[in-house]
Design brief:
Elements (H helix, E strand, L loop, with lengths): L4 H19 L7 E6 L6 H12 L4 E6 L10 H11 L4 H7 L4 H4 L18 H18 L5 E6 L6 H12 L9 E6 L10 H11 L3 E4 L5 H12 L5 H11 L3 H13 L12 H7 L2 H10 L2 H13 L5 H8 L3 H13 L3 E2 L1 H8 L13 E3 L3 E3 L5 E3 L9 E2 L2 H10 L2 H17 L4 H8 L8 H16 L3 H13 L4 H14 L5 H12 L6 H17 L3 H14 L4 H16 L6 H12 L7 H17 L3 H11 L19 H11 L4 H18 L4 H17 L2 H18 L4 H16 L3 H10 L15 H11 L3 H16 L11 H9 L4 H18 L2 H11 L5 H16 L4 H15 L2 H14 L11 H4 L5
Parallel strand pairs: 1-4, 1-5, 2-3, 2-7, 3-4
Antiparallel strand pairs: 6-10, 8-9
Helix pairs in contact: 1-2, 6-7, 7-8, 9-10, 9-11, 10-11, 13-18, 14-16, 14-18, 14-19, 15-16, 19-20, 20-21, 21-22, 22-23, 23-24, 23-25, 24-25, 25-26, 25-27, 26-27, 27-29, 28-29, 29-30, 29-31, 30-31, 31-32, 31-33, 32-33, 33-34, 33-35, 34-35, 35-36, 35-37, 37-38, 37-39, 38-39, 39-40, 40-41, 41-42, ...
């Protein structure tokens, strides 16, 4: 290649590093290479050369984006992975999928989508699962490590780019088990990129190197001219050639080929003819050249432009009405005119000639021949078989597609949809063509688009489902089904666009056409979307209004459970005690007879815990909400009817009622259920947070920190400022303060903006209480007092008095004890009264320890002795260590101090000698 030495050297070095790392069985040395350049600058030729360089030592996987294929989810992913998986038997393939074959295989076209009744796949889970699949595949191919070549990445589908982005993020040291090479056009200059450009920019940020491809110099252009036309090509001719093509390699080669076909002498007298010939290679000139071949080849080229990767001879014949012989004849004319290529042409560009009886080289798994498999959407053809036609260059594809009149193009897409359906392809494969046809009130089109949306949701592509349903609405559907399509559209966008879900579901509920079951479900999902959009008050109002219109029974109780839950989740509530009374009255005689009763008992148990009601009653309610200690069928972690909140509330209530073992059983199952179902986004992050809560309550602080940091890592991949961020950061700050790592706690608080303004939902545990504790640890007493007093004002009026969930009175008493002991004593007395009502050893021990702050020395020693006894009987090892330390200081007992220090070490906490109780409590006579 001319003037591409730096680009080829970078690729050669990257391949050498990859192979060396694999051969030495040491750390992997893959990474990302990015090549950018304008159309025709030589990106494809460069990838061909990299393919030739790597094929003898690596497994080369190739894919190409397509201008008309950007709406096809996982199109690029399938091109890359299907041929690689074809080399393994079925048992090995399932092992590579790591137990997630049923989740991931439909996305790759290796299995039909789940039935419509199945829950939609979690996009994050599918993305992460495919990233792990590629990692396991790379491990199996370590003797020939994979090199992924993605051409025209600017036209890659969003789902595939998100997958590559996830894969390249899996190693924090940025050392990948594969080499990923991307070639694409320059990114648009925008202040804030979104979509595909944003992902490509992120990939480039992690690249080993990003190189821009530049036009050929006049000297290189002259070398090309003499190679193709003969050494007698003179300077004036070569200069004019460079002037006409501006050094664009594709245009230069095309123009030279035309000059050779016209037997043009490469001398100065012919130079003036180059500009006219050059016009034929671009835009209208190329189209005119195509039309000169005749109507048959032109119609075939148009059909290829519409079908794209589905342009197999059989489908081309079906769509054009030509015989197989005619398709072959016109194909040959298009090949000779350098307009299209066949699979054999493309293989010849990258593969050495095969000996008789020998197939493709062992290092190649070229998936660029992706076609369509019946019933499964887009399915790549088997490795080694690429019988579809492609345009010789994307510029040609764009020119041919653009040369069709809008009416002809739309009609052709309609016929393509018909042909694919006739050939047995599924709704997802057909949908990209239906998106392009004109609306015509066709119920069949609406039905196909709705079915395609179901398939897209089943493979974790909600954006593709949204596009299908939006197009179905534009058709439009019949009046009796319009509301149902709106409902389906709202459900499709629930995970990705809560605001759009609110709009669609609200509109659906305002129209006739939803039966009673769908209306209840639409209301429930609307409330979920409002809650995700930080509109808890509106969510509760919508549920209450629908509950009034719903007859007594299971449906009404479902709406009431969600209504009470979202009202209780609000950070500010007008009548918290009144809501709690209504909830208690409603559930007073429930026995957990069905799931609607169990859900309401769960919400009641959580509310009772927050209010500081007796823990025995909280546990009784939670026990009634379960069946044999686990969530009832239909109330599980991944159940779409009730949501994950119901089992989560049960476990949280257990955790703050000194039942961390029961909570741990529930939360461990949450992690397992989410991982099995491929829910690796915010759900899995929250499950890790809940396990962190269990270990914090047990006093295993390092283990708590581990789970909480993992929860934040998982949440960070999903977005910013999510509810799970608030809960996890709050618990992590609390855990780090307990460990004596105040600076780390402050770093977490600052990074996640943990502090006012607080979100519209409550934080787990109480956010202002934890912030106040951090401020006290930092010595910022006045700020701590103000923060804790704000917590008091927010919670007391709502009747929420659980001093372990919201320990503001304990820390406020500690802050005020040196300067205002009387007020501190009042706070301690109130906390003790609430603890006695709660009745757990942890609450009693913590309240007695606080009371000791303001007692005289003998009483302080007695209270601390009692606190230690309670905490010893509790699961709260860290709080026990703190109480033992206070007792050691109050009594001067070295033995008690040693016990406290040993226990704190077991908990992973550092009890600093400077930790003070109060001057009054630490003034003690010698033991």
């Amino acid at each position: 290649m001319l003037e591409r030495a730096p680009e080829l050297a970078a690729a050669a070095h990257a391949v050498d590093e990859l192979v060396a790392g694999a051969a030495a069985d040491g750390p992997v040395r893959g990474g990302i290479l990015v090549y950018r350049g304008e159309s025709g600058i030589g990106k494809t030729t460069l990838l061909d050369e990299i393919h030739r360089t790597a094929r003898d030592r690596c497994t080369v996987l190739r894919a190409r984006g397509g201008e008309t294929l950007t709406s096809v989810p996982f199109h690029v992913t399938r091109q890359l992975l299907q041929p690689a998986l074809d080399r393994f038997d079925e048992e090995d393939v399932r092992l590579l999928f790591g137990g997630h074959f049923d989740l991931l295989a439909p996305a790759l076209g290796l299995a039909p989508p789940p039935p419509p009744s199945a829950a939609p796949a979690d996009p994050q889970g599918v993305r992460d699962g495919l990233a792990k699949l590629l990692g396991r595949l790379a491990d199996r191919l370590r003797d020939r490590p994979p090199v992924l070549l993605v051409d025209d990445a600017h036209w890659a589908d969003a789902e595939s780019l998100a997958w590559l982005d996830a894969f390249t993020r899996i190693r924090r040291d940025r050392r990948l088990p594969a080499l990923v090479v991307l070639a694409h056009r320059p990114l648009p200059e925008e202040p804030r990129r979104t979509g595909v450009p944003a992902v490509l920019a992120a990939l480039a940020d992690r690249a080993v190197v990003t190189l821009g491809l530049h036009a050929l110099t006049p000297g290189a252009t002259a070398v090309l001219a003499r190679d193709m036309l003969g050494g007698h090509a003179d300077e004036p001719f070569c200069r004019e050639l460079w002037s006409v093509t501006s050094g664009n390699p594709y245009e230069t080669v095309e123009l030279l080929a035309k000059a050779r076909d016209r037997m043009l002498e490469p001398v100065a007298t012919s130079a003036s003819l180059l500009r006219g010939l050059g016009a034929e290679a671009r835009g209208g000139g190329l189209v005119a050249r195509l039309e000169e071949l005749g109507t048959g080849p032109t119609r075939l080229a148009w059909t290829i432009a519409v079908l794209g990767a589905d342009s197999t001879p059989d489908l081309l014949a079906l769509l054009t009405g030509m015989s197989g012989g005619e398709v072959a004849e016109h194909t040959e004319l298009l090949r000779q005119a350098r307009i299209v290529t066949t699979g054999a042409d493309r293989a010849a560009q990258t593969e050495p000639p095969a000996r008789p009886g020998q197939g493709a080289g062992p290092g190649t798994a070229d998936g660029t021949g992706a076609g369509t498999g019946p019933g499964t959407g887009f399915t790549a053809t088997p490795a080694g078989r690429s019988d579809h036609l492609e345009f010789a260059h994307p510029l040609i594809a764009s020119a041919v597609y653009g040369s069709m009149s809008p009416a002809a193009r739309t009609a052709m897409h309609g016929r393509a949809a018909w042909a694919l359906t006739e050939a047995g392809h599924g709704p997802a494969a057909v949908s990209r063509h239906l998106l392009e046809v004109h609306p015509d009130e066709d119920e069949d089109v609406v039905g196909q688009l709705r079915a395609a949306a179901v398939e897209h949701l089943a493979v974790g592509a909600p954006d593709a489902a949204r596009r299908c349903l939006e197009r179905a609405l534009a058709e439009p559907p019949a009046p009796e089904s319009y509301a149902r399509v709106l409902y389906e559209l709202g459900c499709a966008s629930l995970l990705t666009a809560p605001a759009a879900t609110v709009r669609h579901l609200s509109s659906a509920l305002d129209l006739p056409g939803l039966d009673d079951d769908l209306r209840i479900d639409a209301t429930y999902r609307l409330a979920q979307a409002l809650a995700h959009n930080n509109q808890l008050r509106e969510a509760a109002r919508v549920l209450a209004a629908e509950a009034v219109r719903t007859p007594p029974g299971t449906d009404r109780r479902r709406l009431q459970a969600a209504n009470f839950m979202y009202e209780g989740f609000q950070a500010v509530e007008e009548d918290g005690p009144g809501r709690s009374r209504r909830l208690a009255d409603l559930t007073a005689h429930f026995t957990g007879a069905d799931n609607s009763e169990r859900a309401l008992l769960t919400v009641r148990g959580f509310d009772a815990m927050m209010r500081g009601e007796p823990a025995d009653e909280v546990v009784r309610l939670c026990d009634l909400a379960l069946v044999d200690g686990i969530p009832a069928h239909g109330l599980g972690w991944t159940d779409p009817t009730w949501g994950f909140e119901i089992p989560a509330l049960t476990g949280i209530a257990y955790a703050f009622s000194d039942r961390p073992d029961q909570a741990g059983i529930l939360f461990t199952e949450a992690v397992r259920a989410f991982e099995i179902s491929g829910w690796s986004g915010a759900h899995l992050a929250f499950a890790h947070t809940l396990l962190g809560l269990v270990h914090r309550r047990r006093g295993n602080l390092p283990r708590a920190q581990h789970y909480l940091e993992e929860g934040l890592r998982l949440a960070d991949r999903v977005g910013n400022g999510l509810p799970v961020h608030w809960d996890t950061a709050c618990l992590l700050v609390d855990t780090l303060v307990a460990r004596g790592r105040t600076a780390e706690a402050r770093s977490v608080a600052d990074h996640y903006s943990f502090g006012p303004p607080w979100p519209g939902a409550i934080v787990l545990p109480d956010g202002p209480s934890v912030l106040g504790r951090l401020l006290l640890a930092e010595g910022r007493v006045e700020e701590a007092v103000a923060t804790l007093e704000a917590a008091s004002e927010a919670l007391v009026g709502r009747g929420r008095h659980h001093i372990v969930w919201a320990p503001w009175p304990l820390d406020l008493a500690r802050a005020l004890a040196p300067t205002d002991p009387d007020r501190a004593a009042g706070l301690a007395a109130e906390a003790r009264a609430h603890a006695e009502r709660i009745g757990t050893p942890t609450a009693l021990g913590e309240a007695l320890r606080c009371a000791a702050l303001v007692a005289d020395p003998p009483e302080s020693r007695r209270l601390l002795t009692e606190a230690v006894a309670h905490l010893t009987a509790s699961p709260s090892r860290y709080e026990e260590a703190r109480a033992r330390l206070d007792l050691a200081r109050a009594t001067g007992s070295q033995a008690t101090l040693a016990e406290a220090t040993a226990l704190a070490t077991t908990c992973g906490a550092s009890l600093l000698p400077s930790d003070a109780v109060t001057a009054r409590a630490s003034s003690h006579p010698p033991e």
